[in-house]
Every structure is written in C-alpha cells, then in structure tokens.
Amino acid sequence: MRICYKEYDMGEERIVRKMLFEDIEGLSNAFVEQGWPERKDILHKYFHEQEEGERQVLVALVGRFLAGYITVIPSANHGPFAGLYPELTDFNVFESFQRQGIGTALIEKAEQEALKYSDVVTLGVGLHKGYGPAQRLYVKRGYIPDGSGLWFNNAPLAPYAPCENSDDLVLYFSKKRKLKKFLSKSA
Predict the structure, then answer these.
(1) Which of 19, 117, 120, 171 sits at 20 to 30 Å (Cα–Cα) from 9?
(2) What is the DSSP-derived secondary structure letter of residue 74?
(3) How many angstroms separate the Cα of 82 from the Cα of each of 5, 55, 161?
(4) Whole-angstrom distance, CA of residue 61 vs CA of residue 75
(5) For the chain, what is the mean pLDDT?
(6) CB neighbours of 164 closer than 8 A, spacing ≥ 6?
(7) Cα–Cα distance between 120 and 30 in angstroms, integer?
(8) What is the number of alpha carbons within 13 Å of residue 61 lying toward its C-beta?
(9) Could you tell me the end-to-end alpha-carbon distance of the chain, in angstroms, rounded to an integer?
(10) Residues 8-48: pLDDT tens digits?
(11) Which residues, listed in sequence order, are joined to residue 148 by a DSSP beta bridge?
C-alpha cells in the first residue's frame, strides 16, 4: 500500500472493506502526514478486536490509497446507549480525501453492519471545530441528539459544570432504521 496520500486520480475506484493487518502502518502514517500523532497501538488493538468479533474496522480505499476508516461496535461501551445499541466510533477521513463522498461511503457501510445488531444505530461526536465535518454529515444523514446533553470523560456533564473542549466532550446521537412499507396489489 502506498503511503503518499496527496497524489491520486479522482477517477480511481473507491471501495470500503474490512481492515487488513497490512493497513495498520499505512493508516498510522496517514495520521502523521496530516500532523496528528501516530496510531499504531490503537489500530493494533482494533485489529485484534476485529479478529475476536468485538469490533469491525471498515477502511476506505481510493485506488491504492487509504482514505479513512470507521469502526462498528455491536454494543456501545460508553454514553447513554451503553449496552443497548451498536455504536459507530473513531470515524476518520484523511484531509486530502474529505468532501469527496468517502465519509458517506464509510458511514453507509458502517450503518449496514450496525443494523445487523439492532434497528437503532448510535454514535458520539466531539464538539470542537475538528469534528465539524462529521457533525454536519451525521445531521444530514438523519442522526438526532439523544437528549441526555453533553458528556465529559464518559459521564453526563452537569449544568454549569466546568469542562474542557477536548475529544472527551461529546454529544450522542442515534438513528432508527425506517421500515419500508410494501403495498400489495389487490386482485
């Protein structure tokens, strides 16, 4: 897998598939290329959890380039949906691939996988500017806040309590599958 993520042909084939062990280094390097810390340890953990059936890691590719990933947990570990519904977590589309439909493709596939467990799909999203594109995508896809307010460090944040606008300040959303109504022809 090539590690240079900035030069690719916009017409290249786009696919979403399960993460392979070989993807770990390339994904981690992509974080470093955009100025973020490397993620080899967490990606190794995710791969192991995928092998154990505890998590699915879906990777987007554009041609031979890794473009991003998302994970699906069969039962949320934190927040208001813990133990109740599947959760989409750790959603990342690398900057040079944003605003090209990669995030939508990842979310669609992740929702398909999550709906194998429940007709409700959940997620949490941070509130700082870095989460802006994800926040907009979730709302456009029909996710609604759960009503429990903000969570900080995996606990509900009391009104007027101090907090830090970090990755640990989260608002939770859910989306219920719309049941298709089939009309039968009467004879």
Answers:
(1) 19
(2) S
(3) 36, 15, 23
(4) 26
(5) 89
(6) 152
(7) 32
(8) 15
(9) 58
(10) 455 678 899 999 999 999 999 999 998 899 999 999 999 99
(11) none
